[in-house]
């Protein structure tokens, strides 16, 4: 009686048998995909919770506020003798003041000066959410209003009429009374420019939508972005401070050069 021959590898594969490690490999692949999907979903959810003023975000902002801001502004943002009430200032005011480093204030003075930001973006949004929950106020602007895609020519005209007397026509800033000043706008983001217009920080007046519409604010931001991206196309800008600095430059260096040349010619003639 003849023995049956041993099956070949090809015949073994046709029987449908799996390699002992196949199950382990499938489990590993499944775990990798499941973990990746969960991580992506968790990250998107966390981002959404940061952007939306949920009760959790408000509670986190309240804790941050009471730990860092209550000394001057009170535990419920009602204000104290050292700081004004923040009830009704809105999320935009917090995002501007804290997002530019003006708050917390480094020391008392004529006005709060810009310095390195003390909080993360998520913490700033949480603080803004808490203050916004105390009473209605200006909100953080939508991205399309600060994207710089408006009418730069209209924005330039509006800026000259409403802003240039303090900030200079080129946004270079200027001095005010009693040690105060209008800051330069050469490196300010569109969001912070919009927030400054609707909240009126420091000595700046408030430009509500009745004074300057959101579309016109967008045009002003577009003009300032154009100035930021096209610095001094005509040569040395001398600080962009206008005819005073230009006249002083000519008086000192131009007239000085003429006097020096006259002295040199006189010396040569003798």
TrEMBL record:
UniProt keyword annotations, A-Z: Cell membrane, Electron transport, Heme, Iron, Membrane, Metal-binding, Repeat, Respiratory chain, Translocase, Transmembrane, Transmembrane helix, Transport
Transmembrane regions: 248-267
InterPro entries, A to Z: bc1_cytC-su, Cyt_c-like_dom, Cyt_c-like_dom_sf, Cytochrome_c_Oxidase_Subunit, TAT_signal
GO terms, molecular function: heme binding; iron ion binding; quinol-cytochrome-c reductase activity
Lipid bilayer topology: Multi-pass membrane protein
UniProt xrefs under Pfam families: Cytochrom_C, Cytochrome_CBB3
Domain Cytochrome c: 56-135, 150-228
Subcellular location(s) of the protein: Cell membrane
Catalytic activity: a quinol + 2 Fe(III)-[cytochrome c](out) = a quinone + 2 Fe(II)-[cytochrome c](out) + 2 H(+)(out)
Residues binding heme c 1, per UniProt: 69, 72-73
Signal peptide segment: none
Post-translational modification: Binds 2 heme c groups covalently per subunit.
E.C. code: 7.1.1.8
GO CC terms, sorted: plasma membrane
Coiled-coil ranges per UniProt: none
Binding site for heme c 2: 163, 166-167
Assembly, per entry: The cytochrome bc1 complex is composed of a cytochrome b (QcrB), the Rieske iron-sulfur protein (QcrA) and a diheme cytochrome c (QcrC) subunit.
Entries under PANTHER family matching the protein: CBB3-TYPE CYTOCHROME C OXIDASE SUBUNIT FIXP, CYTOCHROME BC1 COMPLEX CYTOCHROME C SUBUNIT
Name listed for the protein in its UniProt record: Cytochrome bc1 complex cytochrome c subunit
Organism in which the protein naturally occurs: Microterricola gilva
């Amino acid at each position: 009686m003849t023995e049956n021959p041993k099956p070949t590898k090809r015949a073994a594969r046709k029987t449908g048998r799996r390699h002992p490690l196949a199950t382990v490999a499938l489990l590993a692949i499944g775990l990798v995909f499941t973990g990746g999907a969960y991580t992506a979903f968790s990250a998107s959810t966390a981002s959404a919770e940061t952007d939306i003023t949920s009760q959790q975000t408000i509670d986190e902002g309240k804790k941050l506020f009471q730990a860092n801001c209550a000394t001057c502004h009170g535990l419920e943002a009602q204000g104290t003798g050292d700081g004004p009430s923040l009830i009704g200032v809105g999320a935009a005011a917090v995002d501007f003041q804290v997002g530019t480093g003006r708050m917390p204030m480094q020391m008392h003075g004529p006005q709060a000066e810009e310095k390195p930001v003390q909080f993360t973006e998520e913490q700033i949004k949480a603080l803004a959410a808490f203050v916004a929950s105390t009473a209605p106020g200006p909100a953080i602007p939508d991205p399309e209003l600060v994207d710089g895609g408006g009418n730069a020519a209209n924005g330039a005209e509006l800026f000259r009429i409403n802003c240039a007397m303090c900030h200079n026509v080129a946004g270079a800033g200027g001095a005010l009374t009693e040690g105060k000043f209008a800051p330069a706008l050469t490196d300010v983001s569109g969001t912070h420019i919009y927030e400054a217009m609707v909240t009126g920080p420091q000595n700046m007046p408030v430009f509500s939508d009745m004074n300057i519409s959101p579309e016109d604010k967008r045009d002003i931001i577009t003009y300032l972005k154009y100035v930021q991206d096209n610095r001094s196309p005509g040569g040395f800008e001398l600080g962009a401070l206008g005819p005073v600095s230009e006249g002083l430059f000519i008086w000192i260096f131009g007239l000085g050069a003429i006097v020096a040349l006259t002295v040199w010619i006189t010396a040569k003639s003798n």
